[in-house]
């Protein structure tokens, strides 16, 4: 996927086409959110299958193995599918991984809250069809959509106690610390000390939730922000690296290329080609 954000409505015709094609378990290089308005979804994710009747939401993090099969109920099938790159909402992406790492799907009541979610999807879809879509508007709308989902999830936990808590409280505290400090040249020891625990235990929590070490998470957060700044500002590569705590441009460039497969300059040029 080349765009920063793509949103479309899955119709019965499109679902049939997918089903008749090569619909095997697969990975994505982007994040995906499915909002089921009408119909049924069989979702294979985290090596188990879940049956979902709309209304529901399902978040599939980049790199997760999954497969979906959809079918109509009473002749009706309507899903919104949103696909976006992690750098589109860098300030939220790690929180999403923590919230949904062990529970990708949420069944929702068909109430006013869900109707507003579907309406937000329609507004976002209309904005992407504009001659010059406003990325800032789309970013705020997507963030609002996730905020509504999380509010509904908390409500269900409080009222029914049926959804297993999906992140350790310590990891949530680490994410907040990271969000406040990722631009500073701080290592694992700083975060462990702030959380009154050993680096070993903090890394164990991180690997359990995100299959990454704390160092990898810190670096990924920095580089996600770097991508965002490369496509949304005219700052030089040196300025962006310095803003993110890299004292030397060459080191920042090497780290970026190792993780992204291209230098910051090459990434910026590629994104500008896509946008033009």
Give an overview in words.
The chain is α+β, with helices and mostly antiparallel strands and 276 residues long. The chain has eleven helices and eight strands. The strands form two sheets. Strands 1-7-2-5-8 form a five-stranded antiparallel beta sheet. Strands 4-3-6 form a three-stranded antiparallel beta sheet. Helix 2 runs antiparallel to helix 5, helix 3 (112-128) packs antiparallel against helix 4 (135-160) and helix 8 crosses helix 11. Residues 159-164 have low confidence and may be disordered.
Number of strands: 8
Order of helices and strands: EHEEEEEEHEHHHHHHHHH
Radius of gyration: 20 Å
The major sheet is characterized as: 5 strands, antiparallel
Find the structural class using helix and strand composition.
alpha+beta
Q: Strand order within the widest sheet?
A: 1-7-2-5-8
Please tally the helical runs, counting DSSP H or I stretches of 4 or more residues: 11
**Spans with pLDDT under 50 lasting ≥5 residues?**
159-164
Overall, the morphology is globular
Strand content: 15-25%
* Mean of all residue-level pLDDT scores: 83
In which range does the helix fraction lie? 40-55%
Report how far the terminal alpha carbons are from each other. 16 Å
């Amino acid at each position: 996927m080349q765009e920063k954000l793509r949103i479309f409505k899955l119709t019965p015709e499109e679902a049939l086409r997918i089903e008749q094609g090569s619909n095997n378990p697969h990975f994505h290089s982007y994040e995906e959110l499915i909002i089921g308005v009408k119909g049924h979804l069989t979702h294979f994710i985290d090596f188990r299958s879940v049956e979902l009747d709309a209304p529901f939401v399902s978040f599939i993090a980049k790199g997760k193995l999954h497969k979906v099969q959809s079918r109509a109920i009473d002749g009706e099938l309507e899903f919104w599918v949103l696909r976006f790159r992690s750098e589109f909402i860098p300030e939220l992406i790690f929180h999403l991984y923590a919230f949904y790492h062990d529970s990708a799907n949420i069944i929702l009541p068909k109430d006013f809250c869900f109707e507003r979610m579907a309406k937000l999807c329609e507004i976002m879809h209309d904005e992407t069809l504009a001659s010059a879509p406003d990325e800032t508007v789309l970013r705020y709308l997507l963030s609002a959509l996730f905020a509504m989902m999380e509010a509904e999830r908390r409500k269900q936990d409080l009222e029914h106690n049926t959804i297993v808590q999906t992140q350790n409280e310590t990891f949530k505290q680490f994410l907040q610390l990271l969000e406040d400090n990722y631009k500073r040249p701080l290592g694992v020891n700083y975060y462990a000390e702030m959380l009154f625990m050993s680096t070993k235990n903090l890394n164990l929590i991180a690997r359990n939730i995100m299959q990454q070490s704390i160092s990898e998470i810190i670096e990924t957060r920095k580089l996600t922000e770097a991508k965002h700044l490369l496509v949304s500002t005219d700052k030089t590569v040196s300025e962006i690296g310095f803003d993110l705590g890299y004292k030397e441009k060459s080191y920042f460039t090497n780290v970026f290329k190792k993780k992204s497969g291209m230098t910051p300059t090459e990434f910026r040029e590629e994104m500008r080609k896509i946008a033009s």
